[in-house]
Amino acid sequence: MTVTSEPTGAPGPTAALHTVPLEDKVRTLTGADAWSTHPLPAVGLKPLILSDGPVGPRGPAFGGGADQPPSLLFPSPSSMAATWDNDAVFEAGSLMGAKAAEMGIHVLLAPTVNLHRSPLGGRHFECYSEDPLLTARIAARLIEGVQSHGVAATIKHFVGNDSETDRMSYDARIDEKALREVYLLPFEVAVREARVWAVMAAYNGVNGARMTESRRLLTEVLKDEWGFDGVVVSDWEATRSTAASALAGLDLVMPGPNGPWGEQLTAAVRDGSVPESVVDDKLDRLVRLATRTGALEGATVPAPRPGGPADVLAEARDRLKALAIRGSVLLRNDGVLPLDTHDLHKVALIGPNAVKFAVQGGGSANVKPEHETTLGDALSAVLGREVEVTMTAGAFPHQVLGMLPQDRAVDPVSNDAGVFLSVVDADGKSLGDEHKPVEPFHFPILLPPGAEEVVLRTRLTLDRSGVHRLSVLGIGQFAVTVGGHTEIFEQLMEEPDFARLLLHTPSTAVPFAAEAGEVEVTVRLRPQAGLPHPVALLGIGYEAPRRDDDAELAAAVEAARTADAVVLVVGTGDEFERESVDRSTLALPGRQDELVDAVCAANPRTVVVVNAGAPVLMPWIDRPAAVLWAWFPGQEGAEAVADILTGAEPGGRLPTTFPAAETDSPVLATEPVDGAIDYAEGSLLGYRAYPNRGTRPLFPFGHGLSYTEWAYRDLQVTRGELGVDVSFEVQNSGDRAGRDVAQVYLESPGEPLRLVGYACVDAAAGVSTRVALDVDDRTLSRWSDHGWAITPGLHRIRVGRSSADLPLTAELRLG
């Protein structure tokens, strides 16, 4: 890791700012709406368009409805980090930037580099790794790829935003050594090496100061020490003060047009509380960002390669599938994989995630994919017509149901597919009517003055008789009427939080017995009082009649018993892993563990595919013939899994440690105590902490198998002028071409084992490759009261295939 201290970019047109009225300057520093900024014609500043983007650019809309354009859905960041492939991630960033540019986006709110501190973290899938160096290097290459297309990357959430519970208010208490070595490191590398153009200030506080008000971190460290010359944007609604946040170093308040700056900041400048030069610096940074992204009159963004974004986008699907394959981790394999298709006549595809494959987690990062294939179709395509593929859910862990069937839900007023929404007053008089399509299945509804109730109506055609279920989403008092029968209940939030309501909407399932045919459905909602915005949220989902849980499990066992091989897909999904809420357990939801045991007992040729973004407990790990970890693999994930099962090399290595039991996790709890989270573990995060705890993980950091065999030998380590030169030989000792990730770790006096370098190795059968890595002095250094320095003494360089498989060791005296 080479860290330089030069500031980035060129200064903006500061001279022109002196002619702009103060009110206009200040107005420009708060968003015009949720996803854009105000123009400032006096300096040629056009509106900047912002978009969420950790799994691809979503565009300036949210909710998955008609207003949200389809986009490219990438493998989730935990999957990208599992590639350990800097070049592949650069190409992913380039594709992401090209798509954002095509959509007219100037600022992409990605990457998320908060760490996997606890495996229960709800946003674990959106972050890269438990290791700061791996996170830093992967994120830096993604940033470079995005910005190569003239689109700003925004590294977030600065800093200590590693839990979702009470994320808007907790104070992260982190000692300086851990803050520098672990939590700040990815941000520092993004600024000093990748030259990131934007940084997002988090909701939480650090060591007593809200991040939007932390002058020490935003100005003294980020801007002055590291030389950041870009824009510091607030997380949405994270800014709670006027002068304190303005003086701290925040540059742009989002969303708008309301907020704590505006007239209040203008007044603070006029009364001398905030110097006008502070406002000028913020606007200068905004203009510089516009220059870099082509949002300034006369500014142009050169194409990064011949043909520009079009050439990159032309191969989007192939690139996304290759990335998903490269990130998938083969955890164990008794030889059943890859499947020998010549011996197969019938394959049982079983599991709740086989039926509902989870391609992404939940929250603001959600993207509407422009393409998606079911796992059943993908597997059938690679196995061919001669192989029968059967499908059985086996278990029903999901509480939030799927969307209303688009071809069978009709607006009773317009007779178009969808639902009819009305907002009425206390007398039942309509204050506004609207037709809504089926997608998305929850709708934010602006409540006019006098609104008392929201009414949703649809005419649903049932294709079979039996017990059907509706799921109703939202908060307040509900009356659900189906076919003349009404059920009344309420869903309330103790402390109404609109962001959490939008991202993690409460849901209640309402069963009803009905014959095949047409039924009228009416949902009446009296919204809960006390929401910070005059908006209600109402949604509806549906599930057709199905077998009960015991019968479904029995059907899965029978399907497995009569098949030549079983592909059993278990996991989580956006209902369980999502922004705004942490998980309460690492156990698989519902009866999935029981399903794995029963299916493996029925057929020993069972391959378990785990479809989850964060670790889960696997008490059955020794039962299947093979276990493949697929993450949330994006829009081409089903094809990627099918290709791996039939021979594509699974290239992934774990970017985080998988515990055998919840209590083995060095850090598990995510809940603040008295408003604070104490990072008492210091720098002992993830794999670094296991030796001190005397426990062995289920699968160590860096673990992953190949379809071939690898041998490591001949480690050579020498002290260079600027660091340590490490070289060794890696041989593909198997009988087929493959890919490995060579990992270099350092043991220093008084310090735990830690990653200091890695390299991807692709080799044909029998071929040896010499790997050479330079580990610079900064990477070798630790933080103390005197700054960065190498700990003097005898150090050990260790090399191998994971943090627990390090056959090569060399000693070196440093300091």
Molecular structure report:
The chain is α/β, with parallel strands linked by helices and 815 residues long. It has 21 helices and 35 strands. Strands 12, 13, 14, 16, 18, 19 and 21 form a seven-stranded antiparallel β-sheet that branches. Helix 4 packs across helix 5 (132-147) and helix 17 (549-561) packs parallel to helix 18. It is globular and about 80 Å long. The protein starts with 13 loop residues before the first helix and ends with a strand.
Q: How would you summarize this macromolecular structure in one to three sentences?
A:
By secondary structure, the protein is α/β, with parallel strands linked by helices. Helices cover 23% and strands 26% of the residues.
Describe the SSE topology.
Blueprint: H1 14-17, H2 22-28, E1 50-52, H3 77-82, H4 86-102, E2 107-109, H5 132-147, E3 152-158, E4 171-173, H6 176-183, H7 185-192, E5 198-201, E6 205-206, E7 209-210, H8 215-225, E8 231-234, H9 243-248, H10 262-270, H11 276-293, H12 309-314, H13 316-327, E9 329-333, E10 346-350, H14 352-355, H15 375-383, E11 388-392, E12 409-410, E13 419-424, E14 430-436, E15 442-446, E16 453-462, E17 466-474, E18 476-482, E19 485-491, H16 498-503, E20 507-514, E21 517-527, E22 535-543, H17 549-561, E23 565-571, H18 592-602, E24 606-611, E25 626-629, H19 637-645, E26 676-678, H20 690-693, E27 710-719, E28 723-732, E29 738-747, E30 754-763, E31 768-776, H21 777-780, E32 782-784, E33 787-789, E34 793-800, E35 808-814
Parallel strand pairs: 1-2, 2-3, 3-5, 4-6, 4-26, 5-8, 10-11, 10-23, 23-24, 24-25
Antiparallel strand pairs: 6-7, 9-25, 12-16, 13-14, 13-16, 15-22, 16-21, 17-20, 17-22, 18-19, 18-21, 27-28, 28-31, 29-30, 29-34, 32-33, 34-35
Helix pairs in contact: 2-10, 2-11, 4-5, 4-13, 5-7, 13-19, 15-19, 17-18
